[in-house]
Each structure stands twice: as C-alpha cells, then as structure tokens.
Amino acid sequence: MLYKAEVKVTLKKGVLDPQGSAVEGAVKSLGYTGVPQVRIGKYIELWVEAENAEQAADLVNELGRKILSNPITETFTVTVTESADRLVQTGVK
Amino acid sequence: MRFGVTVFPGTNCEMDTYHALREVIGVQTDYVWHQERDLSRYDAIVIAGGFSYGDYLRTGAIARFSPVMESLAEFAARGGLVLGICNGFQILCEAGLLPGVLLRNAHLQFRCGWTHLRVENAATAFTGATTLGQTLKVPVNHGEGNYYADPETLADLNRHNQILFRYATADGDVTPAASPNGSVENIAGIINRSGNVAGMMPHPERACEPLLGSDQGAYIFKSMVNCLTAGSR
Question: Measured between alpha carbons, how far apart are the two ends of chain B, in Å?
Fold first, then answer.
C-alpha cells in the first residue's frame, strides 16, 4: 500500500527565527496590525510503501528524527494518509 | 605526517585548503573523496568549506550521512585530529561530533569579509601556536554561521574551556558589532571535550600568506602540526 506522509518541521520555541522576523516586519510594513508573530518552518511530503498506516508513520517518524529535522532547534509532526495521488514526477526519465 | 582534505559534491574550498597545507605549511596532503572509507593513513582530516549537497534541507545535513563521515567518526574516536572549516563545522555539528548548530545569520545576509578572532583557549591541538587573548585576522564567508546552543550546552562549553575563538574587534574586544552573524556569545569556533575535534566558521586557509592580507590563519594549521610532531596524541 502506498501512503502519503506530510511532515511539518517547525523551530522550537525560543530559537531565533530571522526569516520569520523579516516576514513579520514586511507584513507590518504592509499595514496589517493584527499579526504579532511569524515563524517559518518546512513542509516535506514523502510517499511510503508500507503494510499499514502505522508502519508508514513509524518509518517517517524515524526519518524525522534521523535526517528531516535537527532536534537541537526543530520539532516535527507527521500526518499519514492513503495516497490517492500518483507519485509526483521528479525529473525527466 | 599526512593530512586529508575532504571533498563532497559542493565543497569549494578544498583547493585553497590543500594549497595552504601543502605549499605554505609544508605537510603531505591528499584530497579525500566523500566515498572514502579508509582514513587509516591520515593523522589529521580537514573538512573543507563550501556548500556540500547544495546546503539542501539544512547545512551539512546530507553530507553527514556519506561514507567518509562514518569513517571520520571512528577516526575521531581513535583520537585523530579533525578540523571542520565553515561548512565543515556545520557538518560536524549535524553529525553530533560537536555540540550545537549553525543557524541563518541573524541579519539574513551572506557575509564575506575580514573578522578578528580572539583566542579563548591556547592550550589545544588547534591553538597551541597562539597565545591566550591574541587576535587573529581571518576572513568569513557564510550565510549560516550563527552558532546556537541551548543554555545548558553553552554553560558546559564554557565550563570545560571548549570555546576556541570569539569574534572580536582588532583590539580584542568581544562586542556584538564585531560578530558577522549574531552567534551566541560571539562564538566563532569550538572544540570537543576530548580536544581532538574542532570547528570554526572563519577560513584560516584563506589567511596563510601576507599576499592574501593576513597570514594569521596559519597559526591554526601550525598548531596541528606541532601537536602531531610532539606526538602528544
């Protein structure tokens, strides 16, 4: 079974986010007053062959710890769904 | 005595590093390809700077899984000298061989220019040829050199005298303005607890000859050679 995993990597609280601050400043300079904070993270999609959703989630969580995030500054969440979409073309064959 | 200079896809400082070691310092030096698994003929490995794997995902995050890094961890565990410069420092942090992480520069700008480093510990394999408090004129060239470690790790680094260099003015004053990137406590370079693995964002290989504007980067390589000659490790 093919599953689609969505991984959101976000900066831990207290870790300086200069990109987020820059966007925050830009939002303010556009005149919006109701946006007190902006933080920037990463969104990663993976397609995983596994027997069930739990197995897929276990694998992606392992990848999250090993490579997709740096535990010193980042945390991540994983969402797994049955993949209805075909695999995205990643280049010219 | 033989030095190795690692080359990953995207490394771009290997020739400068090779030149500095071989022509200026005068030690036997080889390039070490990222697929290499045998480091047994080397006394010291320098992880040269650049943009390994395009800095994809996080700086150093992909390089750390290459075959040479597996061998390097064993090499370091056996006491071999390892110096990571710029991207090399980022790779060592990602690999967990040094504590902390290098984040995007606080001002979001890429910085290329001279900095002054104050020597904070002159009793290491990488700084033995310097004196405590001496300033070294060495250039930086990075977008992500903003050293960060949690307060506990930072206290630990200070307690064990693991901070090698801080960004300072030419007179040796450690001020926020002297830092090119917003590093916590102006940290420019650190060393591991065992004293054989060091990382620094500035490029000593680019400051080994007066023609280049400074020859003070050579102190770092000379220190390594002195340490190996003395056979103290």
Answer: 13
Interface test with A, best of B59, B101, B144, B183 (most A CBs within 10 A): B101
How is chain B split into domains, by residue range?
A: 2-230
Query: Rounded to two decimals, what is the model's pTM?
Result: 0.92
Which residues in A lie closer than 8 A to residue B58 (C-beta atoms)? Answer: 70
Fold designation for B2-230: Rossmann fold (3.40.50)
Asked whether this complex has an ipTM greater than 0.90, the answer is: no
Pick from B101, B104, B146: CB nearest A72: B101
For residue B168, what are the contacts with CB-CB under 8 A and spacing of at least 6? Answer: B116, B117, B118, B135, B174, B175, B178, B186
Q: What is the pLDDT along chain A (93 residues), one digit of tens a residue?
A: 999 999 999 999 989 899 999 999 999 999 999 999 999 999 999 999 999 999 999 999 999 999 999 999 999 999 999 986 655 555 554
Residues of B in contact with A19 (CB under 8 A): 104, 108
- Per the domain annotation, does A25 fall within a domain? yes
Q: Domain count for chain A, please give it.
A: 1
- The answer to whether residue A37 sits within a structural domain is yes
Q: CB atoms < 10 A from the CB of A37, how many?
A: 9
Q: What is the pLDDT of residues B178-192, one digit of tens each?
A: 999 999 999 999 999
B176 Cβ contact list (under 8 Å, min separation 6):
B186
